[in-house]
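Project outcomes to date are best conveyed with an example. Our students and postdoctoral researchers have been running inverse folding experiments weekly, and each run begins with a structure described purely in tokens. The record below, which covers 135 residues, was selected by the lab manager from last quarter's runs and is presented without edits.
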């Protein structure tokens, strides 16, 4: 289901990657340059799904005009809490929570972004990441 990110051979930042969104479209993360990114793992069957999406929506509504972009990555790797297909996930999120931030392709494999030798983002951890608007 999830594809490997296309990227340069020697990525220097998160903006060097192109990933698939939940509808299968390529998204060049360079389009988010200059924005603060909150990159977050999400799941529809997690015990905190409701509060997480409500909180993310509130955060997005409050700060999107100030340069915040939330990039949500569904994953079934943590307790099998996201068993749905991309279509099911998008339907659930849009119907139940009316979320307007981008939902990306369901992450099955570990996606790792490198900044030189330092791993600064991995979707294999149940965590969220802020990326400043600078290179």
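After processing, the design step wrote out the following sequence:
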């Amino acid at each position: 289901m999830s594809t490997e990110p296309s990227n340069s051979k020697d990525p220097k930042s998160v903006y060097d990657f192109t990933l698939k969104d939940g509808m299968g479209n390529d998204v060049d993360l360079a389009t988010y340059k200059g924005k603060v990114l909150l990159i977050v793992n999400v799941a529809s069957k997690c015990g905190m799904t409701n509060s997480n999406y409500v909180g993310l929506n509130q955060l997005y509504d409050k700060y999107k005009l100030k340069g915040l972009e939330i990039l949500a990555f569904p994953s079934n790797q943590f307790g099998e809490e996201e068993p749905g297909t991309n279509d099911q996930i998008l339907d659930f999120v849009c119907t139940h929570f009316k979320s307007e931030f981008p939902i990306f392709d369901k992450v099955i494999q570990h996606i790792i972004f490198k900044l030189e030798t330092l791993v600064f983002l991995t979707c294999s951890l149940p965590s969220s990441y802020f990326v400043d608007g600078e290179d």
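Residues 18-131 form a domain with the Glutaredoxin fold (CATH 3.40.30.10). The radius of gyration is 14 Å. The training component of this project remains on track.
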